[in-house]
């Protein structure tokens, strides 16, 4: 049984198929205008050291998620839960594991001198990071990292979470955005 998820729908809407095939390389080559867009705090998206901002999409721990899916399917097969309850349990498990992945990635990024997590939308498993191009590309070697995407992908995720797009309530989704002080780079 395949469970529908908000994150999957968002990634489809964001058009990550093309971005994933490019492995994030084009995300690091945004045009100069979008890289020097001023943030709300008056800082530039590109520092004098050549720092860039990109969205990093994360995936939950696949073994834990698969284990939980099997447990839920077993409960569904035995009649202990309805199909909608099983779907809800799976989405909750995925959200919890995405939250863990985001926190783990933030800690790793913040412990690295040339990489910094500056915002996150946990609901979608997306973190906005700033760092040198080499550090950003190196982050792809982490098993939890799916792709590097343009900064505007993070802005779309943040906007959707604040608007309450999906199955959660608007207030619930808005609280998923933490530490975000940046503005869109259009």
UniProtKB/TrEMBL annotation:
Q: Where is the composition biased (Low complexity)?
A: 32-48, 59-73, 160-176
PROSITE patterns, per database record: PROKAR_LIPOPROTEIN, TAT
Stretches of Polar residues bias are at 74-92
Q: Which domain of life is it from?
A: Archaea
Give the residue ranges for region: Disordered: 29-92, 156-186
What InterPro entries does this protein map onto?
Answer: TAT_signal
Q: What is this protein called?
A: Uncharacterized protein
